[in-house]
C-alpha cells in the first residue's frame, strides 16, 4: 500500500470512529444548529449550502444579521465540497455492492408496497422508499435548499418548519434545472449493473435503502454544477457573458472544461475506492507477515476502476451538463 493510500485509509478509519461517537455527533449537531440559517425557497441560502459553499452576493433582501459571504463562492471552496461528496458516493456504492441486484426491487409491484400512482399502478419498492423519504425530508425543508433536488418535486409536502429569508447564491434560473430523472435512469440501467452482482439475495429493503442514499448523493454532486458554474461565471464574467448571449452551448462546455482537473478527480476516486473498498484485517495481515507469506492479491468490494470510470463517464459529464444548462439561463432575469 502506498503512503497516500495508507493516509487515506487512516483518515477514513478516523472519520468512521469519530462519526460513530455519539457525543461528538451531538456537539457537531449543536454547532451546526447554532451556525445554520434556513431558507424557504431555492432562492435563499440553506444550512448545507452555507456550510459547503458559503454564500453569495445578496440578490434578495436578507434577514437582518445574515452574513454576505459571497467572497467564499470560489472554485477551490466548491471543489473541496465536491471532494467531500465523493466520500459519501463511493462509500454508499460500496455498501450497495454487498447486495445482489435484486431486480424485483425496481419492478412496479415486484415487492408489495402500500402505495400507487394516480393511474392505479403499484410503485416499485425502491420508488416507494424514495417517495416516502422525500415526503419526510420535504417537511423539514430539505428541498428548499439550493443544493438539494427532489426526484418527485411535483409531490412535495407542505413544510412543518417556517420559512426564513436569506440572500440567494444562484441566479433565479437555477430553480428550473433538475436532471434527476436522467440520473435515475443512468443509475438503474448502467451504474447498478456495474456494481452489484446479478441475482436475487432477498435483501430488498437494504438494497433499496442504499439505492436511495446513492441516488441522493449523486444528485447533490451533479447539481453542484450550478455552484461551480456560478463561481466560474463570477471569475470571468465578460467571457461567459459573450457566450451566453450567443447561446453557444458548445463553447460554454469548452470554456468550463478542465481536463487536467478531471483526470485528477478520476485518480482520486480510484484511490479512494481502493482504500475504502478493501477488507481491512490487521490480524490476518500481521500473521501473513510473520509467516513470510506472499501478500494475497487484494480483493475489492467494487473494482476501483469501475468507480473511476463512473466518474469519468457519468458523474462529471452530467455535472458539466448542469453547468451548461445553468449558464445558458444565467442572464435570463437581468
Ligand atoms: O472543478 C471544476 O472546474 C469543475 O468544473 C468540476 C468538474 C467535475 O465535475 O469534477 C467538471 C468539469 C471540469 O472539467 C472539471 C471538474
TrEMBL record:
Primary location: cytoplasm
Pfam family, any one: CM_2
Subcellular locations according to the entry: Cytoplasm
Keyword annotations: Amino-acid biosynthesis, Aromatic amino acid biosynthesis, Cytoplasm, Isomerase
GO terms, molecular function: chorismate mutase activity
PROSITE patterns, per database record: CHORISMATE_MUT_3
Catalytic activity: chorismate = prephenate
Documented EC number(s): 5.4.99.5
Keyword presence, Cytoplasm: yes
Statement: the UniProt record of this protein carries the keyword Isomerase: yes
A single BP term in Gene Ontology: amino acid biosynthetic process
Pathway the protein acts in: Metabolic intermediate biosynthesis; prephenate biosynthesis; prephenate from chorismate: step 1/1
Transmembrane segments: none
Residue ranges of every copy of the Chorismate mutase domain listed in the record: 205-323
GO cellular component, one term: cytoplasm
Protein name: chorismate mutase
Organism of provenance: Tetradesmus obliquus (Green alga)
Amino acid at each position: 500500500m502506498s503512503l497516500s493510500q495508507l493516509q487515506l485509509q487512516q483518515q477514513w478509519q478516523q472519520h468512521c470512529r469519530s462519526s460513530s461517537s455519539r457525543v461528538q455527533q451531538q456537539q457537531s449537531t449543536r454547532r451546526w444548529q447554532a451556525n445554520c440559517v434556513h431558507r424557504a425557497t431555492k432562492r435563499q441560502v440553506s444550512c448545507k449550502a452555507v456550510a459547503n459553499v458559503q454564500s453569495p452576493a445578496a440578490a434578495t433582501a436578507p434577514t437582518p444579521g445574515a452574513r454576505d459571504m459571497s467572497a467564499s463562492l470560489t472554485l477551490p471552496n466548491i471543489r473541496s465540497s465536491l471532494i467531500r461528496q465523493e466520500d459519501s458516493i463511493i462509500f454508499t456504492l460500496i455498501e450497495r455492492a454487498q447486495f445482489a441486484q435484486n431486480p424485483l426491487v425496481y419492478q412496479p409491484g415486484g415487492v408489495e408496497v402500500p402505495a400507487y400512482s394516480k393511474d392505479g399502478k403499484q410503485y416499485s419498492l425502491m420508488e416507494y422508499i424514495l417517495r416516502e423519504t422525500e415526503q419526510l425530508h420535504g417537511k423539514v425543508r430539505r428541498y428548499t435548499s439550493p443544493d438539494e433536488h427532489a426526484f418527485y418535486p411535483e409531490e412535495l409536502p407542505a413544510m412543518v418548519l417556517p420559512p426564513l429569508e436569506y440572500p440567494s447564491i444562484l441566479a433565479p434560473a437555477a430553480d428550473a434545472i433538475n436532471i434527476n430523472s436522467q440520473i435515475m435512469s443512468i443509475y438503474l440501467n448502467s451504474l447498478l449493473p456495474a456494481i452489484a452482482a446479478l441475482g436475487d439475495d432477498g435483501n430488498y429493503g437494504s438494497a433499496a435503502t442504499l439505492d436511495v442514499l446513492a441516488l441522493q448523493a449523486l444528485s447533490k454532486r451533479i447539481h453542484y454544477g450550478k455552484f461551480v458554474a456560478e463561481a466560474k461565471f463570477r471569475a470571468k464574467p465578460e467571457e461567459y457573458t459573450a457566450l451566453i448571449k450567443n447561446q453557444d452551448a458548445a463553447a460554454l462546455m469548452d470554456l468550463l472544461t478542465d481536463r487536467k482537473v478531471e483526470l485528477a478527480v478520476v485518480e482520486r476516486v480510484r484511490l479512494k475506492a481502493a482504500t475504502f473498498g478493501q477488507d481491512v484485517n490487521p490480524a490476518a495481515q500481521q500473521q501473513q507477515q510473520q509467516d513470510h507469506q506472499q501478500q494475497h492479491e487484494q480483493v475489492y468490494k467494487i473494482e476501483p476502476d469501475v468507480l473511476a470510470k463512473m466518474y469519468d463517464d457519468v458523474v462529471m459529464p452530467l455535472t458539466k451538463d448542469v453547468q451548461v444548462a445553468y449558464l445558458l439561463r444565467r442572464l435570463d432575469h437581468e
